[in-house]
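Workshop exercise sheet. Pairs work together: one partner reads the sequence aloud, the other fills in the structure field after running the prediction. Swap roles for the next sheet.
Pair: D.N. / O.F.
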Amino acid sequence: MADGGVAGTRGVSPTPERPAGPPPADARPAPSSPADVVAAAAAAPDLAALADVVTTCRACPRLVAWRRATAADPPARYRGQTYWARPVPGFGDEHAGIALVGLAPAADGGNRTGRMFTGDRSGDFLVAALHRAGLASQPTSEDRDDGLVLTGVRMTAPVRCAPPANAPTPAERRTCGPWLARELALVDPRVVVVLGGFGWRALLTTLDEQGWGVPRPRPAFGHGVELTLRRGDASLVLLGCFHVSPHNTFTGRLTPQMLDAVLERAKALGGGQPSSSAATT
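Structure field:
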């Protein structure tokens, strides 16, 4: 089977619960090296084209193997479902004032459903908060065809494939970096809410490469950290927030009230305003 979805077997007949998504990866040229990623990201004229090419990427062999192995041997509750098992594109408003930058898709979340922060507990926690903030049309994110619309906010990540142990290598982050850079350039947010230290470090690297005035030494991540960067006459505000992982939310390290406060601050700084065209790309 090409990278067009992988059915978890274990003796259960596949029962796809959603459309197949983009054409199989072998129907389009697939980026298969860091240089390919750089060229393909730069050539994407808009977010739809970027999403199409992101989903074909095979530039990190370890991640390709892991995303497919996870899909082929899922937990019991997902047996028989057809996993997305491809890189996951960004999702949300094409003209968002706020970008949400996480880490990478979850093995049985985004890697299963094909949408950022969808189908797992992290997504449940985050989307409920976005709904309370008036940025999401509904409080749940279960499936990429569930009708969720984000207004004024876009979800993305530095790494687009589910990594083993939720730990991409530095080389994988560097290889995947051009996808994030191109998405930010196309969206042009005013505020970025960064979920966790990995996303913070990866984002600062990307912004530094884009010519933003990232301080030296680079500011450390922390919940509630606020950093304003400038590039010519433009400014961009970064807001640090603990990641919405179950490890943080179940232990109370990150509470709904803490996340709500970060999102309200992002809105107050000029992000999250309704765009002329809320999108579900």
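Discussion prompt: The chain has nine helices and eight strands. What would you look at next?
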